[in-house]
Amino acid sequence: MEFTLITLLNGLSYGLLLFMLSAGLTLIFSMMGVLNFAHASFYMLGAYFAYAISSRIGYWPALFIAPLLTGLLGALVERHALRAVRRHGHLGELLFTFGLSFLLVELVQLVWGRAPVPYPVPAALDRPLFTLYSTTFPAYRGFMMLVALLMLLAIYLLLRKTRIGLVIQAALTHPHMVEALGHDVPRVSMLVFGGGCALAGLAGVIGGNAFVTEPAMAAALGSIIFVVVVVGGLGSLAGAFIASLMIGVLQTFSVTLDFSLLGLLGAFGVEATPALAQQRLLNLSIAQLAPILPYLLLVLVLLLRPRGLLGVREG
Amino acid sequence: MLTKRAIIAAVSLTAALASPATLAEPVRIAFIESLSGPFAPVGQNLLRSWQSMAELANREKWAGQHTLEVAGFDNKGSPQETLNQLHAVVEQGYRYIAQGSSSAVGLALIDAINKHNQRNPGKEVVYLNYGSIDPEMTNAHCSFWHFRFDANSDMKLAALTSYMAGQKDLKKVYIIGQNYSFGQQVSRTVREQLKHKRADVQIVGDDLHPIGQVKDFAPYVAKIKASGATAVVTGNWGADLALLVRAGRDADLKADFYTMYAATTGVPTAVGAAGAGRMKMVGYWHPNNESFSGSDIVTAFKKKYNDDFYGMATYTATAMLSKAVRDGGSTDPVKVAQRMAGMKIKSLNGEVEMRRTDHQLLQPLYVASWTKVDGKQVKFDQENTGYGWKTEKKIDTFVATQPTSCQMKRPG
Q1: pLDDT tens string B309-338
Q2: Closest Cα of chain B to A85: distance in Å?
Q3: Which residues of B lie inside 8 Å of A (Cβ-Cβ)?
Q4: What is the fold of B27-151+309-362?
Q5: Transmembrane segments in this chain: where (chain A) (predicted)?
Q6: DSSP 3-state assignment of A300?
Q7: Of A35, A153, A266, B273, which is most buried with the most CB atoms under 10 A?
């Protein structure tokens, strides 16, 4: 019981971090139709900004300033580069953001070096939050979960209850009408792109010290957030939420399962001959397969339900 | 009649002609390691260790009038990238390669260097291995061109399991490691040795995880806890060990850790006060050894780089290489290799010998535990934690020695 609960909590907290990352990507995609390949690079930037700021003026200011800076940078990228590229269609966007992701990694390496940087968890949160049976649950993980949930709430309120949210939603489906009503649609796009990048930056501030801040962090998470977005359904925030939690829990539980095909055969009463026991494939445990399970899920979803769990948008 | 000036000219001309072999030439060593990515802090530390040992050797003229130079090359932790770098440095005229933080890389190097030396007589390359400890490298895959200055994992694990066998409260052991040749080897050896030495001890888990990719060890720690393990054995190093230990501390895992690399960059900080008495390490040396041998090096290194000196094998390697160069009066890799085989010197851990049959260094080993600095037994801490290593047991060279199956082919 202790094991199940703790693993579930670990899975949920990892899933919520994935959600923070994929929320920005989903927003940008659903509002602008841009699949931002550089999204995870903004996550990395958020972590590095937070490291640089927190080592000078402390963690709490960094928590606010780093996402703002990341968002500002995202808005500038949209205004001065992406906007020009977008005129030439989707392929240009994809290639541009793809190139941008490499550029940002190189920049980070030039400024902060190739090795991981010491970006610690703030002292106030570096303690146990509660004890479950005999296992302590770190306060920082609880904080991670809290920030993710607050962020979800804030996005929901912004989109559903405010005027600017109305304009954003309308600009998506009826850009000309919105423009005719006197709203500046390109500026809305810039805000959305910057906002999405700021969310990735926030995830970086939170995730960078919970795990490791290093130049490879974008590449490590870049592919998994695309899995989240596709499984959840392109453009669906609720879908991304469900998919993040699913993948977080799936990955966390799968590293703890030692079942193998050989064991399964054994359960069905098949005797393991020495020749059979030597087979590498049969001996692979779920734990060893854990890193590829999300991609397996991605392939399955694309085959069985191409628009994802909650996807509504048709291309 | 010869004038004074003519005599001087003649003498100096003769001297210049007679001693071309003793002209000072630099011995250039290419250090090929992870200098980027998750294991970069360890690579950086070891590069500095090599460079400060070379400075020391040059200052004290260990290699006579020859000097040593060490330059770093990044292999990004990958065997393939290592071979690219090997090719590049050989083109640049390097004849000595230093590597030591991955046996996967080490095995690839042995193979490539064997082939290179066979095909390019007169341009031979020697591999100075100061830390890749897969026993295969001095057994089935042993090579005349490879010299290992660290103890291999069989030696270290024999010492560690003997120490473990003496711990009365040892009941349930969990083995966890990186999923490559070395991690798998550790798992096999620990199982075998414990079965032999303490049949009553139960192995409650055995896990392999991808090397350098796991950022969150909390799920593994939950599994270790659920198994009821009282001790964890791991061959992990660098970031993989630091993150494992940190996750253990976060979840309040009350198990002893038996390790080989708890001194590597990042790990001492992760261990902190929570690991006092519970973190054990087997190694060939630590700064708080019985005579504090090497303390001047540790102090100078800390002052210069604000970092800890832990890669003492760089000292042994530099000393043996220098002695071979000085005694033979030549920097030719073939002659140096022949001189290093069977060489005995005094290193920081006492008398050591490079075994002729397999080029494995024979040296004493220490089992040490993480202890608060007391100024008497524990003078040096690590990473400014206020904690350092205290010797639990010193294993003499003849006990720490393991047999070899090496059938070495020697040139000429």
Answers
A1: 999 999 999 999 999 999 999 999 999 999
A2: 33
A3: 35-38, 40-41, 44, 74, 179, 207-210, 213, 215-216, 218-220, 222-223, 225-226, 239, 243, 250-252
A4: Rossmann fold (3.40.50)
A5: 12-29, 59-77, 89-112, 139-159, 191-212, 218-242, 249-270, 282-304
A6: helix
A7: A35
